């Protein structure tokens, strides 16, 4: 693959509603370098595809009038300044009545001290991740699942909603684990770590961020021609990369009880190796760092156009995760 700089990268960010739930997308065309922001370069068909999805799509005005008009024709709406607030420390409580959307990295701030059922549920979820990652016996996993009615309910709901080709209802944990398979069970548990927990307003936006990270890294691995095992490792790196934020602890401490490969650990803690490079790609896109992103893609020999396709596919999958409908992404 050769790298083209004609097509600019698509920077997409979920916007939270007043309750902190991701419900809209922002395309930040105004942040693109002037030399590549021409309407003929922007991948409008991909953006139109997103506009037909479940989230309202906005663009930040300030780019060329021609590009603004083209985005409007593709189904995107201008984000009016009075409709949005920015927050980087905590979810605002006293918002102007006109504000509909909240942008910023408020959900990456340290969590409030977890108490009661919330702390216990998240700790159990991490223990389950540890067991599945270590390929523990099904009976051990089942015994731990029985301690958390919320996780148990969602597991059975997922397997039954997917159908999984069984033609009958699944009613036992061991049956659900067998049908889902260890790889998909591990993926589902990773997502459940970040899913909504009472008392943690960051959960929904953290889940949207980590879902895009993990799916993007998996698809980037596939674009490099890597095998399924490498793609699964890339997904895991994306998912585990925000565990420190989730628990409000150094990532190294959170990873200690988990049995993970050296390459995954080095990618997470030092951004080393190819997996570390893939993590750099998604992090630079989150920061809207054009130079860093294009440099990372060039090092991996991935076309910007291919990255844009991956960004859209990962965002579509994130929306299904946010709606509670995600099964296997079938990379």
Topology of this protein?
Layout: E1 12-16, E2 22-27, H1 44-51, E3 56-59, H2 65-73, E4 77-78, E5 84-86, E6 101-103, H3 116-133, H4 138-145, H5 149-162, H6 173-180, H7 182-194, H8 203-223, H9 228-240, H10 243-247, H11 251-255, H12 262-270, H13 273-286, H14 290-300, H15 304-322
Parallel strand pairs: 2-3, 3-4, 5-6
Antiparallel strand pairs: 1-2
Describe the protein in words.
The chain is of the alpha/beta class and 331 residues long. Among the domains are: 12-108, no CATH class; 115-199, no CATH class. The protein has 15 helices and six strands. It has helices spanning 44-51, 65-73, 116-133, 138-145, 149-162, 173-180, 182-194, 203-223, 228-240, 243-247, 251-255, 262-270, 273-286, 290-300, 304-322, and strands spanning 12-16, 22-27, 56-59, 77-78, 84-86, 101-103. The strands form two sheets. Strands 1-2-3-4 form a four-stranded mixed beta sheet. Strands 5-6 form a two-stranded parallel ribbon. A hairpin with a 5-residue loop joins β1 (12-16) and β2. The longest helix has 21 residues, at 203-223. The radius of gyration is 20 Å and the shape is globular. The protein starts with 11 loop residues before the first strand and ends in a 9-residue tail after the last helix.
């Amino acid at each position: 693959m050769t790298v083209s700089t004609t097509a600019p990268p698509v920077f997409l960010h979920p916007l939270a509603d007043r309750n902190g739930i991701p419900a809209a997308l922002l395309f930040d065309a105004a942040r693109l370098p002037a030399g590549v922001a021409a309407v003929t370069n922007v991948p409008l068909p991909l953006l139109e595809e997103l506009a037909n999805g479940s989230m309202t799509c906005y663009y930040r005005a300030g780019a060329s009038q021609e590009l603004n008009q083209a985005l409007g024709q593709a189904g995107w709406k201008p984000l009016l300044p009075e409709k949005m607030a920015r927050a980087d420390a905590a979810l605002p409580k006293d918002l102007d009545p006109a504000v509909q959307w909240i942008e910023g990295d408020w959900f990456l701030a340290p969590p409030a001290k977890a108490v009661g059922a919330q702390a216990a549920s998240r700790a159990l979820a991490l223990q389950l991740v540890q067991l599945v990652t270590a390929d523990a016996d099904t009976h051990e996993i089942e015994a731990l699942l029985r301690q958390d009615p919320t996780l148990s309910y969602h597991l059975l709901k997922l397997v039954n909603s997917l159908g999984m080709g069984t033609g009958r209802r699944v009613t036992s944990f061991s049956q659900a684990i067998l049908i889902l398979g260890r790889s998909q069970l591990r993926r589902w548990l990773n997502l459940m770590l970040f899913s909504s927990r009472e008392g943690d307003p960051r959960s929904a936006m953290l889940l949207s961020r980590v879902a895009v990270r993990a799916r993007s890294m998996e698809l980037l691995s596939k674009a490099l021609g890597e095998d399924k095992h490498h793609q699964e490792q890339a997904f895991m790196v994306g998912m585990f990369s925000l565990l420190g934020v989730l628990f409000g602890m150094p990532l190294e401490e959170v990873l200690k009880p988990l049995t993970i490969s050296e390459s995954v650990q080095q990618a997470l803690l030092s951004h080393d190796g190819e997996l570390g490079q893939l993590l750099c790609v998604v992090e630079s896109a989150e920061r809207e760092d054009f130079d860093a992103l294009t440099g990372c893609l060039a090092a991996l020999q991935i076309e910007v156009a291919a990255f844009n396709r991956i960004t859209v596919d990962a965002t579509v999958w994130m929306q299904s995760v946010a709606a509670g409908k995600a099964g296997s992404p079938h990379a």
